[in-house]
Write a structure and sequence with these properties.
The chain is 30% helix and 17% strand. The protein is built from 6 helices and 11 strands. The chain has helices at 42-46, 55-66, 109-132, 168-175, 199-205, 225-245; strands at 9-12, 20-24, 70-73, 95-96, 99-100, 139-146, 149-150, 153-154, 159-162, 185-187, 212-218. The strands form 3 sheets. The chain has a 7-stranded mixed β-sheet with strand order 1-3-2-6-11-9-10, with helices on both faces. Helix 4 packs across helix 6 (225-245).
């Protein structure tokens, strides 16, 4: 048992009055001391297995442009992946791609329950409260990044627009994609709902009837400040008119 973890979640721009709530579940690769580094070496702790490099800076830029609150995780997804329900094996994975996670091997029910209460429940509670504080309708947007290769195979997709059963926002964004596109933009790629990646969308978007979408950006396109700003601009080119089409294009008063 590790007890309560201090500050497992950040709420940035909490007073934002835009028509969007942003989420970045995999914002940090921090592993609290109580978990002994999960038995990982430095390279593994810095790798994409532990977090989504570039996702938080991108989410911050979108939050600034949209005047949106941003709920961000402060704990590595290898300790607990806040985009997974507690009963999912991938919530506390024993292996991520080619990286073994010794500290997650053979977790018993008490250990899993402890991590759920210490990390997942505070994150979910914080996001629920941010949503509840917003009286006007809002859209839910989660921001992620993905590795350029997977099991050694290069990925051609550059921007993924992901959705579950509600495709309203995704459809409108894809309709706004530039043609000819400067980027390879695909629907439900490199992951889709069949891969279990839409938990946050289901729990906080679908359940409340809120338009929602998950953004996935290839990590090599987010390596510098300039690249992050360029990507934010490209996403906003699709997102802003999509929100307007849903009647969510203007900031709301408190």
């Amino acid at each position: 048992m590790t007890g309560i973890i201090e500050n497992p979640v950040d709420i940035l721009n909490p007073d934002g009055r835009g028509a969007v709530i942003l989420v970045c579940e995999h914002a940090s690769n921090h592993i609290p001391d109580a978990y002994g580094g999960l038995g990982l070496d430095d390279a593994a702790r810095e790798s994409h297995a532990a977090w989504d490099p570039g996702a938080l800076p991108l989410a911050r830029l979108l939050a600034q442009a949209l005047d949106a609150p941003l709920v961000a995780g402060r704990i590595s997804r290898l300790v607990y992946d806040c985009n997974r329900p507690p009963d999912a094996a991938s919530a506390m994975p024993e292996r991520s791609e080619m990286i073994d996670v010794p500290g997650n091997h053979g977790l018993d029910a008490n250990a899993r329950r402890d991590r759920t209460k210490s990390i997942y429940e505070p994150f979910t509670k914080a996001l629920t409260e941010v949503i509840a504080a917003r009286h006007p309708p809002v859209a839910l947007i989660t921001v992620h990044s993905f590795s350029p290769t997977w099991f050694g195979t290069p990925r051609a997709v550059e921007i993924g627009i992901l959705h579950d059963t509600d495709s309203r926002l995704a459809d409108l964004m894809l309709a706004e994609a530039p043609a000819p596109a400067p980027r390879r933009i695909e629907r439900n790629a490199p992951y889709g709902p069949e891969d279990g990646v839409t938990h946050t969308l289901r729990l906080h978007g679908l359940a409340g009837g809120r338009p929602n979408v998950m953004l996935e950006v290839r990590q090599d396109l987010l390596r510098t400040d300039a690249a992050q700003q360029q990507m934010a601009d490209e996403i906003l080119h699709m997102l802003s008119p999509a929100l307007a089409a849903l009647g969510l294009g203007k900031a709301h008063d408190a």
